[in-house]
Amino acid sequence: MSNKSREHRGTVRTHRRKTKISDRGNILVFDKGVGLDLRNEPQLHAPRQLIEAERMSAIGRMACSISHDMRHSLTAIYANAEFLERHDLCAGARADLLLEIQEAVLAMTDRIDSLLQFGSSGRKNPLVHARVSLVVEKAVAAVKFHPDGQNVSITVGKLPPAEADIDARNLESAIYNLLLNACQAATRSTRVPEVKVHLTEVDERIYLTIVDNGPGIPASVRSTLFDPFVTAGKPNGTGLGLTLARRIAEEHGGSVCLEELNRERTVFTLSLTKNR
Length: 276
Description:
- The structure is a single chain.
- By secondary structure, the chain is of the alpha+beta class.
- The chain has three domains: 3-41, no CATH class; 44-119, Orthogonal Bundle (Helix Hairpins); 128-273, Histidine kinase-like ATPase, C-terminal domain (Heat Shock Protein 90), CATH 3.30.565.
- The chain is 45% helix and 18% strand.
- It is built from six helices and nine strands; from the N terminus they run αββααβαββαββαββ.
- Helix 2 runs antiparallel to helix 3 and helix 5 (168-186) runs antiparallel to helix 6 (241-251).
- It is globular, with a radius of gyration of 25 Å.
- The relative contact order is 0.10.
- Mean pLDDT is 75; it is low at 4-41.
């Protein structure tokens, strides 16, 4: 190797900089001397940057939480799979082990889907004019297959042929989250668990009402119910169901509101605008 090459390599090593983050003078300095000067950034962008920073921070917190939960689920799956190798198990025991594995996989899938949906910045799919009742029926059918919805009586009122500009996939996800929350609340009732679903239209608005006969929502979380990672007494909840449901409803020109709460029933209403 020539002396010139050695000198060149030595120069590179001498000037190689470690990763550094500094806010001195409102300049962010990253690896390789790349700087982002914020002094000339319009102040109008500041709120958006703060919101994005908070969203990414929330994603980081949820990733840590999910990694812990998924490790627990994977441990259960691995242990049950080892039990299934035993030849002295009866058919009933094998069925129970398989059910536990399926429930663990379903829980992991729910958490991953929540993280991906929460991490996405806004709606990706175009709105299509379609019948809302079909989306409601799909969400109800999906919840009935979930372990927390199998033993709950879900009554759906007469569905009007209301149509709207919707992202059917996202809207179904929002309704599914609301229904699943209602079923989980109803299973904690001292009575027969029951959930009722009503769909109505008033002028240019469509309203989906979901009623459960659970014990209600604890007073400690009512004011922050729609904030990320807030759970109402569910040990395995991600705390994103209501957050995502409200965000999807807002993308459809509506919202999600807690309409009524008492010891006998809890009522949530999702609204949306017909024409966007």
